[in-house]
Design brief:
Blueprint lengths: L2 E5 L10 H16 L7 E7 L10 E7 L2 E6 L6 H24 L7 H18 L16 H8 L10 H6 L10 H16 L4 H4 L12
Parallel strand pairs: 1-2, 2-4
Antiparallel strand pairs: 3-4
Length: 213
């Protein structure tokens, strides 16, 4: 397992957390690596920019098959609690994206985005011992099928309202994190029919997850 972890802290805002963060990151990589093979990966951690702060205090991004970023809201007093409770899931989510990217998959269409996020959210539930992603607190009791039916005309399109479908910028159209919820359910539905593992499922073509619907 070859993983380089770097804290990017030109502002000095993470300085007092450095030892804590490195310990938590090493632990998170070990947990994630017990489920999937991780190799040739750079992980960077830095503060959120002021205009892109997550309501969860932590977020991430997979830049490529070989680099993922974790962002922290250092203005919060509970940042250590957030890291202890959410780092494994957030980092696992992004590493799952990186793994899928390593198989050549891209987020070209709405379906690609649904599957990419659904696979990562499912991996979060594996890391959480079956508990769903923190994103799903408000949507987990909502029937995903009607939401999927509204999205269906856009599945093969590369032109769709991502912010509305995934981030809930127009709540009268889609609930917040709807795209993540639909993607997660597409993946769990597939897994209810097919016996496979995380490393294999992440390589599948997006169309595999809607063939039986």
């Amino acid at each position: 397992m070859s993983v380089n972890i770097t804290i990017l802290d030109a502002t000095g805002k993470l300085a007092k957390y450095e030892k804590f963060l490195m310990s938590q990151l090493d632990m998170a990589v070990e947990v994630i690596g017990s489920h999937i093979e991780i190799s040739d990966l750079d992980v960077t951690v830095s503060p959120f920019s002021n205009e892109k702060v997550s309501p969860f205090g932590i977020g991430g991004y997979a830049l490529s098959a070989h680099r993922v970023e974790v962002f922290l809201d250092v203005s919060r007093d509970d940042i250590e609690d957030i890291v202890e409770n959410e780092l494994v899931a957030v980092l696992g989510h992004e590493i799952n994206h990186a793994l899928r990217k390593s198989h050549g998959h891209k987020n070209s269409t709405l379906l690609d985005n649904l599957v990419m996020e659904g696979l990562a959210c499912h991996f979060e539930s594996v890391l959480n011992n079956g508990g769903v992603s923190s994103m799903f607190v408000d949507i987990q009791d909502e029937d995903w099928i009607p939401i999927y039916q509204r999205m269906k005309p856009f599945l093969e399109s590369s032109s769709f309202p991502f912010e509305q479908m995934f981030l809930g910028t127009k709540l009268d159209e889609y609930p917040r994190y709807a795209g993540y919820w639909v993607g997660y359910n597409l993946v769990t539905q597939y897994l209810s029919r097919v016996n496979t593992n995380i490393s294999d499922i992440v390589a599948l073509d997006s169309s595999s997850f809607v063939e039986a619907i």
